[in-house]
Amino acid sequence: AQKVTQAQTEISVVEKEDVTLDCVYETRDTTYYLFWYKQPPSGELVFLIRRNSFDEQNEISGRYSWNFQKSTSSFNFTITASQVVDSAVYFCALSGTGKNSGYSTLTFGKGTMLLVSP
Amino acid sequence: GAGVSQSPRYKVAKRGQDVALRCDPISGHVSLFWYQQALGQGPEFLTYFQNEAQLDKSGLPSDRFFAERPEGSVSTLKIQRTQQEDSAVYLCASSLVRGVTYNEQFFGPGTRLTVL
Q1: Which residues in A lie closer than 8 A to residue B112 (C-beta atoms)?
Q2: CA nearest B49: which of A34, A107, A98?
Q3: Is the Cβ of A58 closer than 8 Å to some Cβ of chain B?
Q4: What proportion of chain A, given as a percentage, has pLDDT over 70?
Q5: What is the pLDDT of residues A20-45, one digit of tens each?
Q6: Preferred mutation among A42, A44, A101 to probe B, highest tally of B CBs within 10 A
Q7: For residue B107, which phi and psi values (nearest 5 degrees)?
């Protein structure tokens, strides 16, 4: 069975601070993808980043960066110079192989609420 | 529209009523997923369609839940004899192609169901 754990329930920072959201996952699949989604108060899940299990190279995209470490099954997400508009719930998700291996579903963590104050 | 749309956005039902939730995926998207998101939790998988075929309904919590996608486009999630524990946000997602684990899912705004 797959599992995603986001130990941080809520994080509060002041604008311009850097913030890292933690994610630990469990899977028996050898091929999988990890995602981060943002859910603002409007409720819609917004795709942020995706990383496959074969590529542990960490990247930076604008103010977002991520640290994928297969050895510790972690996929942490960092926002640099946070802004008030970053306030939202952030979900880490893991793709898995469906029962017929012809599709994948997403297993989500419980989310981390990020509050950025001015 | 360009994105996934869902209707209604909010639904209040009395316990025991039947409800129907609609999802309009992005045009041309083959795969369609339904998720249930309880308050303070992450979304949990309910069911999956590939075109009109329902390939996986393992996440449906009971036989009161039924989903269909008869023409491979619009999908409806129906809940019969609603119970208070059914209160949640129901999210629909679509993706362009079938299979493959990297396939990005585009989510709709969800329908918030409250059962009194």
Answers
A1: 43
A2: A98
A3: no
A4: 92
A5: 999 999 998 888 889 999 999 888 89
A6: A44
A7: -100, 145
